[in-house]
Amino acid sequence: MIDRRHLCVSMLTLVVGAAARPGLALAVRPRWPSPPQPARVPTIVGKFGHQRNDDYAWMRPKDWHAVLRDPATLDAPIAAAVKAENDYTDAMLAPSKPLQAALLARTHAVEAGAAAPIEVEDGGYFYYQRQPAGSQYPVFARRPVGGGAEQMLLDVGAEATGKPFFALHWGGTFHSPDQKLFGWSQDLTGSGIFGIRVRDIATGKMVVTDINESHGSFAFDAGGRYLFWVGRDSNGHPNSVWRRDMSSGEDVQIHAESDPAFFIELKTTASGGFVVIRMANSAQTEAWLIPASDPTAKPVLVEKRAPDLRYDVDHWNGRLVILTDVDGAIDMKIMTAQVATPDRAHWQDWVPHEAGRFIAAIHPFRDVMVREEWRDALPRLVMMGKDGAERQVAFDEPAYALSVPHGQGWAASALSFTYQSPRLAPHPYRLTLKDGVSAPARPAVANPAYDPGKYDLERIEAQTDDGVRVPITILRRKGMAKDGKAPLFLYGYGSYGATVDAAFEAGKIALVDQGWTYAIAHVRGGAERGNDWWRSVLKTGKKKSFTDFIACAEHLISGGYAAKGRIVAHGYSAGGLLMGAVYTMRPDLWAGVIAQVPFVDPLNTMDYFESHPLGLTALPIWGDPRVPAEYAYIASYSPYDQLKPAAYPALLATGSVADERVAFYEPLKFAVRARALTIAGNPVMARIATTGGHMGASGASAALAQEALFHAFAIWAAERKWGVVPQR
pLDDT-derived band of residue 608, with 50, 70 and 90 as boundaries? Predict the structure, then answer.
């Protein structure tokens, strides 16, 4: 039986959907299946004095943390809903499989030979990772600087064999300062629970195999006897720092973190002189130093955490080098202090603050320090000698990306980095520290299947209503007319101060080869234009990210790069919040939206912030739900709560049951509710992985296959290949 409301909405779906698409028949194509109809169970939810109704609150597991540890424990009704959605999505995307295969084949052809390994010099060795032919995982290895045979350090494929999921920590792998040990953190479920492993390089013997409940970060002492590692509590918060005596297996707790609002990072200064314990969130920092040559010494505080004090610390030329925003240095300055007096009262200016020059990182070497800076939304490298003399490294592309890997040796002869752009495959470079000459580390290998000269790359700007100019990176086939006929794939992120690099993606080349324009909207929330570019959107400024993205879309339309209703938007994680927001704010602009592991139900998440792995660390970003004005602001844009009857474009929302950062029920609920409310005939789909985590399934092929699926969805959405589909 169908009630009056559902009958009216169903009829309106057909009429509006057909009217919006000239030439489409009013009848629903019978080949498309009816979508799932999950139960609607009106439930009053909400904390902190605020209540709201949520028909799909039941999709949140009773014990989400148990599900993170073992996805097989997912409640049966929720598991059934996940399966039904996945089956529906698979059926809707099945006809696009030949297109997916073609896109994937072109991606592989473009990518062939593109991944030249970058070698980092340290302690008489070049360390690197390479991708063996036919393998889904890299191999980590090293070779002597003076020549000699390769030494295998870690074969990730061998470690992953027989495991449904295997991923390394985003912080990377590390070797000990004495070059004798190699360590890594591994996640076997996707839930962010890391086991730390350490191997003796010479013998291959495993030295550490029993640290299985860590947060992932670790560091070695100078002598290779002690391992410092970060523990976690039952909610996934980093809550402690431990010192493991690898000769005895004894663990000693050296720091207990009582405030779950802070992440904990461990690192070794470039000089190798200190192990740094760094607690940080977006608003505050606190760092402690342990002499690497005296690992059992009591940690020494650099400067106590305080509101709006952010800093990082390294060691160079016998002094501490402090990168900080203190005293209004919004785009960062560099200060120094004596090791014996590291506190803020003794900090001295060295590289002054300069508005518009964002100092993103420093890389000290024995005789030279290299800075990573951003100007005009583009990165650059600046060399600085002990005498203060500077030399800038220039790059030619109108938009490009630089990547400087960790582990660069104190006495290395050059800084290793990768240079790339949306049309130039990543290539290793070496910046010789003696003379400041930057050059490719090895000759580029020509790829007969790909010619970068056949593509145009532009950097333009869109102006917002409040007068801000937002950079846009554009990739197109050379000579394409700006007549609005080409469909547009528009990507955005805009959170946490994370820049969206203008990087090379073989999959985007495959899409552009289909006649598409690819663009990146560098919206506020990233740090492309410095710290204020993201701090201005914190808490009650977040909507600027959304309006920036919309302004970019409209500017591209007015410039002939796209047409209204021919744009597919894509965002990931916190960028998925951006997708949910623009989906509800301006559904008329998009042919489709891809919300990849999207943070689209922030009110629900913030209700449980105390037990969420990101928890209190998120409060300086999104706002504190206990503060009425901040709660009201979140509610005013929360995509899940802003859904209402409207003609929504096609949607593909993805998630993972074991994702600890964005719970799977957020994209699941969003898609289900959007489908229940849409008055258009576009497919609304969710795909929830039962293995894998926030980054998706493990292995190189899985990521490429998912990208091909996203691009096939985009093509089908822009070309209206589904026609009008049933919604209920």
Answer: confident
Residue type, 525: G
pTM of the model: 0.93
- In the predicted structure, residue 489 carries a pLDDT above the cut 80: yes
Beta bridge partners of 316: 319
Q: pLDDT of 515-532, one tens digit each? A: 999 999 999 999 999 999
Residues 6+ apart with CB under 8 A from 186: 159, 166, 167, 168, 169, 194, 195, 197
In this prediction, residue 80 has a pLDDT band, given cuts at 50, 70 and 90, of: very high
The residue written with tokens 């203060």 in the block is 388
3-state SS assignment for residue 492: strand
Give the H or E element holding residue 185: strand 181-187
| Angle of helix 665-677 versus helix 76-93 axis, rounded to 10 | 60
Average of per-residue pLDDT across 534-544: 96
Nearest residue to 583 via CA among 631, 546, 542: 546
> CA-CA distance, 609 to 626, in Å (whole number)?
11
3-state secondary structure (DSSP) of residue 716: helix
Q: pLDDT for 269-287, tens place per residue? A: 999 999 999 999 988 999 9
What is the per-residue pLDDT across 373-406, written as a single tens digit (0 to 9) for each? 999 999 999 999 998 899 999 899 999 999 999 9
Phi, psi of 96 (to 5 degrees): -90, 5
Cβ contacts of residue 162 below 8 Å, gap of 6+? none
Around 603, how many Cα atoms within 13 Å sit in the side-chain half-sphere? 27
Report the residue count for the chain.
728
What pLDDT does residue 133 have? 84
For the segment 709-720, the average pLDDT, to the nearest whole number, is: 98
The answer to whether the beta carbons of residues 681 and 149 sit under 8 Å apart is: no
pLDDT digits (tens, 9 = 90+) for 84-93: 999 999 999 9
Residue 457 DSSP class: E
C-alpha to C-alpha distance for 182 and 420, rounded to whole angstroms = 29
CA 388/CA 374 separation, integer angstroms: 20
**What distance in Å separates the CA atoms of residue 429 and residue 442, rounded to the nearest whole number?**
8
Q: Bridge-partner residues for 362, per DSSP?
A: 371
- Cα–Cα distance measured from residue 320 to residue 269, given in angstroms and rounded to the nearest whole number: 10
423 token code pair: 């049309």
DSSP per-residue string spanning 297-362: SPPEEEE---TTB-EEEEEETTEEEEEE-GGG-TT-EEEEE-TT--SGGG-EEEE---TT-EEEEE
Instruction: Classify residue 650 by its DSSP letter.
Output: E
Gap between the terminal Cα atoms of the chain: 12
Is the Cβ–Cβ distance between 620 and 282 less than 8 Å? yes
Kindly report the backbone phi and psi dihedral angles of residue 690, in degrees, each rounded to the nearest multiple of 5, phi listed first. -95, -10
User: Burial, 197: exposed, middle or buried (Cβ in 10 Å; 0-12, 13-18, 19+)?
Assistant: buried
Distance CA 344, CA 338 (A): 11
Q: Which two tokens mark 105?
A: 């084949």
**Cα angle: 419, vertex 424, 425; to 5 degrees:** 75
How does DSSP assign 52-105, residue by residue? EE-TTGGGS-TTHHHHHH-GGGS-HHHHHHHHHHHHHHHHHHGGGHHHHHHHHH
Assign 319 a pLDDT band (cuts: 50, 70, 90): very high
H helix or E strand, kind and range, residue 416: strand 414-421
Cα separation, 18 vs 14, whole angstroms = 6
| Strands of 311-316's sheet in order across | 311-316, 319-324, 333-337, 348-351
Closest CA to 239 of 616, 562, 559: 616
Using alpha carbons, select from 665, 687, 594 the residue that is nearest to residue 89: 687
- Phi, psi (rounded to 5 degrees) for 683: -65, 140
